[in-house]
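#help-structures
NK: newbie question, is this the right format to request a structure? protein is NADH:flavin oxidoreductases
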Amino acid sequence: MKGHLYKRILSRLKIGNIELPNRIVFGAHPTNFASRNLLSDRHVAYYRERARGGAGMIVLEEQLVHPSDLPYEKALFGFSEEIIPGYRRVAEAVHEHGAVVVAQLNHSGMQSEGSTAMHVLWAPGTVPDVVSREVPKAMEESDIAEVTGGFARAAGHAVAGGLDGVEINAAQFSLVRQFMSPLTNRRADSYGGSLANRLRFCIEILKAVRAVLGEDRLLGIRLCGDELAPWGGLTPEDAAEIAVELEKLDVLDYLTVSAGSLYSLHLSAATFYIEPGFAVEAAAKIKKAVRLPVFAEGRIHRPEYAARIVDEGLVDGVYMNRALICDPWLPRKLERGEVERVRECLSCNQGCQVRHAMGKPLSCAVNPVAGREYEEETAGLRPAGAPKKVLVVGGGPAGMEAARTAAIRGHRVILWEAGPAPGGALAACAHIGEFARLLKTWARELADCGVAVVTGKYCRPEDVLAERPDALVLATGSRTAKPAFPVRKCPAVTAREAAVKPDGVGKTVLFWDEVGDRVMARAVEKLLAGGKTVYFVTPDLFAGGKLAATLELTPFYRRFMAGAAEIFTSSLVIEVDGGRAVVENRFGGRTVTLTGIDTLVYNCWPRPDESLYLALKDRVEEVYRAGDCLAPRGIAEAVRDGYLIGKSL
């Protein structure tokens, strides 16, 4: 049954004059791996691993076509001849494993970052970007011709570098889409007004690029199937009409369809809040209108779903970017009938969203070697020289990954978990399908590599000493600090406790949040879903500050604003006494007294749980700390800690 399900998605697909080995594509995304804005050893290893894992086609990180565009500091200079040797190295690495490789060519237009290069933004007009609020320069016709030439020049570099073709970005973060859209193109010349005029820039680019590529190399375009703007903008009907007009040029080999624009940035890498395949409907509408192969992208992370939409003929193939960051071997596992061994992407965006000024390199919350493949090629997991008895205390992400990695290397591993099942901090998110499935995958991996898991085991120092391990890994997590304000005669629980057991919380809740993280969001949502009245207080200017970087803020706010009884930002809780709470604004000094409070739920900054470490660090020869008990951070850091400890034992 499973073999039949994946038969079509694993079948070959001809696009242009090239045949893909399957219909799974690893699409373009920022990595921040560049060295001097050129492809690095890190890129080569990263793309090689996805080709080894079975991706049918790989689309390289966007290549800038003109010096007027620098959306992030380590973007790749496709306009420079110096990029060609890097292309050759990547092409050789990818072709060795049978995959096709193309470069995405792009100019970000008004969605670039003028302050990075101190260059004025170029755009169809002077409409400011909704994020940076920066007003761009309206491009003159000479600017348009220069950028068009830049696309052709960059395509020539791809040809010289041995790539199989190029993909033009005309979707999110794209000047080409900005010319297509009536929201951002308000020109009165031959490049604005009617759809035919708004398409002129794109058509000129496609013709110029095809002239450079010749007939043997691929030319694809990534279209916006729906801008999902609050007013106007490109609709699925517009996108289908655009696709028809572009197909008439007879220069394209395939279309890729995404959704979202500068007015819906949270969909550029949709989180677990958003339904899977949110752009598939628009892609299917385009597929009905054209003969070209059509690919869909947009939170297509589960193999079963990807296979179904291909099998039903909604699209010809799928882009599974984050899924292949998380598990590069997903296609090979499907080929071998091992879908249950796929590490599923959480859609959490904790490490993989790096298109911003911070410049940190791409990573993954649950794949500890994502972005570090170049290190693993020379110093990956090796069999243990002398197998040890390893005791891991704590079954959260850090503990599970340490246990798994150590066992793979041949150590005899025992994992003690105080709760009824491994999970640790992830238990607060276990109601979300992706997190629940990840915990099942981890449990299966632990069983497969022979880890002895003991649950319900509250560990004391004497228990560890009696076990006599050769190495001790402490992954005991953290504890939430108590609020600084006085609390009298009022039940109080942590946000994590409220998320796991919302029924244990009273009907009317005072929610104090200092952190603005995912724990807060899950707890608030569970309380609201349970019909609780929630008075939310935070000292920050807005709720959920940590959710912005992971693109969770907008969908969270839609739920939050609809359900919260009252929200007090820039405010402090002065005291809680019985059912009464006093809240004061930090800036204006305005004081509000709330009554009828049944329970205080608090989300204060966590503190490492160091008790076992302090008791045992001088009594066991090898002691390691991983995850929050070392320093409270995120899932990605915890998993990486666990992996490195397991690797080093």
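mod (FA): yep, format's fine, and the tokens are attached above. The chain has three domains: 13-376, 381-479+611-648, 487-604.
NK: thank you!
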